[in-house]
Amino acid sequence: MTAVFDRPKSMRDVTMHYCPGCTHGIVHRLICEVIDEMGIEGNTVGVCPVGCSVMAYDYFNCDMIEAPHGRAPAVATGVKRSLPDRFVFTYQGDGDLAAIGTAETVHAAARGENITVIFINNTTYGMTGGQMAPTTLPGQVTQTSPYGRDTAVQGYPIRVCEMLATLDGVALAERVSADCFANVKKAKKAIAKAFGNQKEKRGFSIVEVLSTCPTNWGLSPVEALERLRKDCIPYYPLGIYKDVTQGGE
At what angle do helices 181-199 and 24-38 cross, to 10 degrees? Predict the structure, then answer.
């Protein structure tokens, strides 16, 4: 028999805790595939804060650090500055990166810290019960917006890539999705580009991955993927918002 797929060496052979239909596992695999292909497993440090990825240290074979909620870019900055030869990445959700960690994210980007940020956007606080996040869509029902997000009261969602693309220290700001095979391939390409930027010392790279949260959306895995395509992608268009290797946006 010919093997057509195998678990990446950088991914541990353990059962994940994520809910059925959650796309965190897909993104984990993509990161591990990139690490394997670059041959940097022993030279990589991942930083995961509080959120659904709080136990990601169980899944990656590289060195991992647990950061306080929202502080992963600050911790990653310290690691990268003290060990500049390491490949340092953060793995953060939207409630973490775009809410309690907004300052750390924006200022790490503004400083052009030579790190890679993987940003999972599923439009909700996943681990803590499905509260409204900064990325929650207008009208979206959550535990803290039971009548739907009212922009007149709760404001508008934050488009992180568009915002960070305006900063000079950002080398890459790209939004991808984990909803189908074609988009998963593009997501891997973006992650590889972000790690490549770090190797070439180009500065801060962020890859935003639009993802599902079937449990807190109250949908089946198939329905969640359909919602991702129907509602999330139109509001958060996929694409490259800044890429210094292409001469700008």
Answer: 50
Kindly provide the residue ranges of all beta strands, DSSP E only, lying in the chain, ordered along the sequence.
44-48, 63-66, 87-93, 116-121, 170-177, 204-210, 239-243
Q: What is the pTM of this model?
A: 0.95
Would you state the structure tokens that stand for residue 110, as one six-digit string? 């503004």
Residue 185 to residues 7, 74, 162, 190, 199, Cα–Cα distance (Å): 16, 30, 22, 9, 21
Topology of domain 24-246, CATH: Rossmann fold (3.40.50)
pLDDT tens-digit readout, 4-14: 778 999 999 99
Q: pLDDT at residue 64 above 90?
A: yes
d(CA 207, CA 209): 6
Residues 140, 218: Cα–Cα separation, whole Å: 12
The dihedral of CA 152, 157, 162, 168: what is its sign? Answer: positive
Tokens of 184: 């998963």
CA atoms within 13 A on the CB side of 224: 22
CA angle 56, 28, 1 (to 5 degrees): 125
Instruction: Find, among 58, 63, 140, 50, the residue nearest to 97 by Cα.
Output: 50
Measure the CA–CA gap between 203 and 111, rounded to whole angstroms: 8
